[in-house]
Amino acid sequence: MKRQSSISPCRMSHVQLRRGYFSARNNGDDCYIAAEFPSVERGQMFIVGDNKTYGGFYNAPLQRTETYRVWFGVFVTVDGVS
Predict the structure, then answer these.
(1) pLDDT tens-digit profile of 16-42?
(2) Which residue range(s) make up the domain with 32?
């Protein structure tokens, strides 16, 4: 198995990608985190662009005239180790 690069699909490091919508917009970045959940229950639904805030991240409304790519990422910490 080949190890993946630390660069995200947005061509940003994981540190740069830890930006929310407003910070990304102010920095001219195309990628941002729309939501963060401390845990997810089986069957839990999430709607991209619902204009709500999740875990301190604003899930900005989507524009009909734009094209989007959506990625799902997982960050796990067990016994203080990430």
Answers:
(1) 566 788 888 888 887 888 998 888 788
(2) 1-82
